[in-house]
Structures are given as C-alpha cells and as structure tokens.
Amino acid sequence: KDKRKKTWVCNQCGATTGQWFGICKACRAMNTMVEFKEALEENNGKVSGFKVSEAAVRSWFKEAGASVPSSLADVSKGMNQSEWRITLPGLVGMEISRVLGGGVVPGSLILVGGDPGVGKSTLLLQISALLSEGFCGSNSGRILYVSGEESIDQIGNRADRLNITTADIFLYSSTDIEDIMDNIQVLSPQALIVDSIQTVYLRGVSGSAGSIMQVKECTSALLRFAKQTNIPVFLIGHVTKTGDIAGPRMLEHIVDTVLYMEGESSTSYRLLRSVKNRFGSTDELGVFEMSNTGLQAVLNPSEMFLSEAVSGSDISVGLAIAVIVDGSRTFVLEIQALCLTGSTTTKQCNGIDSARSSLIIAVLMKQAGLKLQDNAIFLNVVSGFKMIETAGDLAIAAAICSSFLEFPIPNDVAFIGEIGLAGELRTVPRLEKRISTISKLGYKKCVIPKSSEKQIASLNLDITILGCRNLNEVIDNIF
Ligand code: TYD
Ligand code: MG
Predict the structure, then answer these.
(1) Atom of ligand 1 nearest to the CA of 120
(2) Range of 11's domain?
(3) Near ion ligand 2, which residues have CB within 5 Å?
C-alpha cells in the first residue's frame, strides 16, 4: 500500500490543500486541483514514475548501509568540515565556494534560479569545468551536463568562448528524466547538471514539462537521486515573469540549497546570492562580472558601483555616497537626487524603495524645514543596485539637500545612518566594517549618528568622523 502523504495542488497557482476541491480556494480557478504525492524518504522501490531499477540504484551506493539510521556519534566521526565539501579551484571557484558555505556538498541538490539570460547556463558550465578540475587527482572527474534548452553544438560553442577544453564534461541533450538516469548509469559522473528544471519531465506524471506537477515531481526525483548516489546535482530554474508560477520559488522547500543569480541586463555585474542553505549560512554574496570569456570574480567589489564622475571631477550637485553591507560584502554606492520646481510629476525612484524615500522626504520637510512641497524629486542609485538597507537613509537625504540647495557635497565625504521620524540619526549595524572600507578607498570624512561615535573610537583610521544627532546638525555641518 502506498503510504505516502497525499496532497492536492492547484495546477494554476500552486496552492496546496489536504483535500480535493472543485474550485481552488486560493485563486478560484475551476477544476485545477491535482493529486500530489510527497516524496518518500525511505527508498522502498515504490517511487512513482521513476523506473530506474532498485538494483541499479543500489549499485551507486558506496556503502550498502547508507540508508539505515546511524548514530550521531558514528556520523560525525572522522568527517571534518573540509573533507565534506568539494572546493572549487581558482578565483571564480573560490567565490562560488564561499557562497555555497565552503564548497559543494556531495549528495546535495542545488537550485540556481534567475531571470532568463542572466547567465545561469554560463555559470553552470564554468562550475562543471571547475568541478572536474577539483576532482582531478582523485578518481575521474566526469561531469554530466544535461540540457533541454540548447543543442550540444550551442553548449559546445559556449564552452569554446569560455576556453573550456576538458574531455571530462559530457554533454547530453535530453528532457526525459528516466532516459537521463539510464545514461548516468553508464557514465558514472561525479556531478550532474540539469539545465533547466522547466524542460524535463517524468513519464507517468500528468502535465507537460514546466507545469507545476512535473517541476515538483522531477525535483523530488532528482533529490532522491542525489541522496542515493551521493553526487551533487545542480538544477537551473528560470524565474518566470508571471509571479513565479512553476518557478524556483515553489521548489525552495524541496532542495538543499537555493542560489539566485541577479544582475541588470544593462550592466555586466552579476551577484550570486544564497537564499537557502542546509549546509551553511545564507548571508554570503558572490560578485562576478560577465566578460566575453564568461564570468570573472570581482575581487574588490566595494568600488564597482562608483561612476566615473566621482573619481574624475571634484564635486557635483545632488550626489551623495552611501555605504551598504550586503552579505559579507561592503558596497559604496552613489545616490543621485534631482529636485525640480514646478513639475507635474511628484516623485520617481530608481533602486530605492519608494515608501522609504517618501518617509525621508517627509522628515526633511517637517523636521529640517526644507520646502520640498512644490518639487518633483527624482532619486537614483547609480549602476542599478537595489538599496534595501536603511543605513542608506542619510545619503538619500544628503543627496536631496544637495540638489535642493544647489550645494555640492565634496566627493570625499560618505554618509552612514538611518533616519527616524523625528529627524534623528539612528545607529546601524557593522559600522566598523563600513568605515574601514571607505577609509581604504580614500574617503576623508564620514557623517555618522552621534550615538555610534564611541563604537568606532578604537578604530585607528585616517578618516574624519563627524557625529550628528539629527538632520539639522548634518545640514549645518555640511551645507
Ligand atoms: P546564459 O548563460 O545563456 O543565460 P541563462 O542560462 O541564464 O539564460 O548567458 C546569457 C548572456 O550572457 C548572453 O546574453 C550572452 C552573455 N555571455 C557573455 O557576455 N559572455 C560569455 O562568455 C557568455 C558565455 C555569455
Ligand atoms: Mg540557459
């Protein structure tokens, strides 16, 4: 008897319920609920639609007893952290390993999500090369790269551009999971890459490739496969435009690790962010640049968002420097503001949360007495970075003041601090880290909340710290 937990999933919105309904309770669509059986952890050979024979799977076990419960004492014995992971060589490999929490964990299922065209296939092809190199020396480092998106020739061309020549990467164009599994048996690879989860399907599961059912079942099948064989499996998932339907979001709870690749198409910078990691922390961020030979590691990301204007000319109106911490990295950002009198638009933000900017503008009007009411205010974070940290508040306020008062801020001044509703400056986390970064970059003065001054008193840096209690003090001192 099938003992797996049964749930009903809406084929349209992905809502899950314990029983069948004719109309989805979440999205109100008719007749969209389909049965879904959760994956069974114990491998008892009754996995739906997954026809690789028990014996074949068994042959993958290095040790036959791997699925028997083991005592914690036995498990941790002799397995120190570094042995547990495959570290990727080179600078790009170092960056990726860091995001993964120190390397690739054997037997883990890693989902790499991102917008179409952001560079996921490029990243995974580079990871394939690094993995095979990383395995070198031990036994053969064969990697199987399965693509349902592109032809073998297309991937071959990409490998040429990336200067990847290793004979250990095997390309296979297929969308049938069972067919893929059969071929894996022959090759015995050390890692499997599936590009992408939206193109593969399992026979016997309803729906076409890319539907919610297929995507979930295929991911579950690959998870079982990763656990049984103890090889790492990478999955590519496109973030779909229409609200993530059948996209990576709904797979996050199934897989071990979720990485998202981000980047504006107008810039060449790509960020790799870990949003879930069963084997490490999630506040790591990898920074890359897409070049004509693939992704390159950016070793000094602090200054990558600075425009020529700042390094070239001495001063400019409506420009202030913010210092933002994301993951374990510090970024120096340029905030631009433009105040325009007598315009019909009221406000436009690019890279800054609109509600946050409204708050800052309101505080500037009420607490600092700036007559901004007749102005259209445009705000922009240079280079398409999305600023979510409130530590950037003060820089936004300073940029607005600078534009409104038509008073330039010297280009060696940075602003750090959160703004409260009374116009007071509030302290922000990791201040030492921010200040030492800008000091290294040559900034001479930094405005911070007065309350944080003693926190950094012990830092011996070549930078003038200006502690202010509120916005009025900042305006008095700078403008
Ligand atoms: P791709 O990896 O195909 O994106 P995804 O798999 O996420 O859809 O790469 C997308 C873009 O990257 C493509 O428009 C071209 C660019 N690119 C480079 O700039 N340099 C390179 O070396 C490669 C391989 C791609
Ligand atoms: Mg692709």
Answers:
(1) 7
(2) 1-38
(3) 121
